[in-house]
TrEMBL record:
<dbReference type="Pfam" id="PF04468">
    <property type="entry name" value="PSP1"/>
</dbReference>
<protein>
    <submittedName>
        <fullName>Signal peptidase-like protein</fullName>
    </submittedName>
</protein>
<dbReference type="InterPro" id="IPR047767">
    <property type="entry name" value="PSP1-like"/>
</dbReference>
<feature type="compositionally biased region" description="Basic residues">
    <location>
        <begin position="444"/>
        <end position="454"/>
    </location>
</feature>
<feature type="region of interest" description="Disordered">
    <location>
        <begin position="365"/>
        <end position="468"/>
    </location>
</feature>
<feature type="domain" description="PSP1 C-terminal">
    <location>
        <begin position="119"/>
        <end position="204"/>
    </location>
</feature>
<dbReference type="InterPro" id="IPR007557">
    <property type="entry name" value="PSP1_C"/>
</dbReference>
<dbReference type="GO" id="GO:0005737">
    <property type="term" value="C:cytoplasm"/>
</dbReference>
<feature type="compositionally biased region" description="Basic and acidic residues">
    <location>
        <begin position="382"/>
        <end position="416"/>
    </location>
</feature>
Length: 468
């Protein structure tokens, strides 16, 4: 398909040096050519007699520009045919993009009247017309660079974006953009002397400029303005606010430097969903404190609040519950919390960390009152307790009432005589007869504890006494 929409030639056409011309775009699945303002004529296979066909045809030119022309001679046209049309200043080559009843709908949509102001289609393009057209558009790139140099020399505050030569080489249209009014009378004289053609200056908006140049958007697809979008509606920052988007100019701006047109695509859906979201005029009041709105999920109907003093903890509350709290606040009622709306509910005291970790202390007190042995006293526990119950006074004070004389000079103290040991049942009796075999057998035998034998003479005699 030779769309002729690129300044480098027809897409898919092969030039004399056996190289493929055009923008090197593989095109779409249905068209096989450039995707600049492609349309699908779904009535093209409907067999309609020639005299009953709608006489106006949609013609596409370079940069996706489309105009409507009348097929006064009832030519047999098909989508993609190259035709020569009358532009008022000469003949220009264009491509048939749409015809039939769909064109009637497009005229109604754009408000174009079917009258004598619509120009005519001259004829089908011949090989000579196509060669002349390719020669004319080959001058576009060189004309852009040279024109920008002239504009820079004249110090004009304008940006030249594209140049389109007419197929017959009579006229050249210069597309530019500027924020202020530009006096380009001197520029037109210089350009006419430079290119020897009739000069037409046409100012376009930044969105139209992006559509003519084309590019890839942040979504990874071709720009909407260069593929299908023709009506540029006003886009405001309120569209971003309704959709809870960050008001970052870098993220909200497109390649044209203006707000992205896609911000309006889902705006109506968000507007319908916002109708069911309660409106907050201030902060919500609960017993814990005033809660401020942090985030709203429109489609999940959830709102996140943060209580004063706990801004890091967000609480998710449903929109219905928020509406109930707002009504209670208007009546002067402060609910207990987001979950419990009763104002007279008892206050539940939360345990501190020390109280939650005092299980061991409560267990120690429990066993101490019941007289039970604490598991911590299994090994050396009582010994440590006795050690802790010792006199905590200094050693000098503790020894103040004791006799400071040497042990040999202290008076002897009589120790109580221990009685005979009574063996508990089941314990073997010790027989001292073998040990005292050399002594008299008439004397009564006394039994002493092996471990705690009484020492004769109050312990002063270091000799070992015999057991009597």
């Amino acid at each position: 398909m030779a769309c002729k929409s690129c300044s480098t030639g027809a897409c898919g056409s092969i030039s004399g040096d056996q190289k493929v011309s055009g923008c090197q775009s593989n095109g779409g699945c249905g068209s096989g050519g450039c995707n600049k303002m492609n349309v699908f004529d779904w009535l093209t296979d409907v067999d309609v007699p020639t005299f009953q066909r709608y006489p106006i045809v949609e013609i596409k030119f370079k940069g996706g520009r489309k105009e409507y022309f009348k097929n006064a001679d009832s030519l047999s046209l098909h989508t993609g045919d190259a035709v020569m049309v009358d532009t008022g200043t000469g003949a220009h080559l264009g491509i048939v993009s749409l015809q039939g009843e769909l064109v009637r709908l497009q005229l109604l949509k754009k408000g174009i009247k079917d009258d004598d102001s619509i120009k005519k289609i001259l004829r089908l393009a011949t090989e000579k017309d196509i060669e002349k057209h390719e020669l004319s558009i080959s001058k576009d790139i060189a004309a852009i660079h040279r024109s920008r140099e002239i504009i820079r020399d004249l110090k004009l505050n304008m940006k030249l974006s594209d140049v389109e030569h007419q197929s017959d080489g009579v006229k050249a249209t210069f597309y530019y953009s500027s924020d202020d009014r530009v006096d380009f009378r001197e520029l037109i004289k210089v350009l006419a002397n430079e290119f020897k053609v009739r000069i037409e200056m046409k100012q376009i908006s930044l969105r139209q400029e992006a559509g003519r140049i084309g590019g890839i958007g942040i979504c990874g697809r071709e720009l909407c303005c260069s593929t299908w979008l023709t009506d540029f509606k006003n886009v405001t920052t309120s569209a971003a606010r309704y959709q809870n988007l960050s008001l970052n100019p870098v993220k909200l701006s497109g390649q044209c430097g203006r707000l992205k047109c896609c911000l309006n695509y889902e705006l109506e859906t968000y507007m319908d969903a916002i109708k069911h979201i309660p409106t907050l005029e201030g902060k919500l009041k609960i017993r814990k404190g005033n809660a401020s709105l942090q985030k709203t999920d429109i489609f999940k109907r959830m709102m996140w609040f943060a209580v004063e003093g706990e801004e890091s903890n967000w609480v998710a509350v449903g929109c219905d519950r928020v509406a109930e709290i707002i009504e209670l606040n208007k009546k002067g009622i402060i609910p207990e919390s987001f979950e419990n709306l009763s104002p007279d509910s008892p206050v539940v005291e939360k345990l501190s960390i020390s109280e939650l970790n005092s299980d061991l202390e409560r267990m120690d007190k429990k066993y101490a009152k019941g007289g039970k042995r604490n598991p911590s006293q299994q090994k050396g526990g009582f010994r440590n307790e006795r050690r802790d119950n010792r006199d905590q006074r200094p050693r000098d004070e503790r020894q103040g009432n004791r006799d400071q004389r040497p042990r040999d000079q202290r008076p002897r103290e009589d120790r109580p005589v221990q009685g005979p040991r009574v063996n508990p049942p089941g314990e073997l009796k010790t027989d001292n007869a073998n040990t005292n075999a050399g002594q008299e057998g008439n004397k009564p035998k006394k039994k002493f504890k092996k471990k705690f034998r009484p020492k004769p003479n109050g312990g002063n005699d270091k000799s070992t006494p015999s057991a009597e």
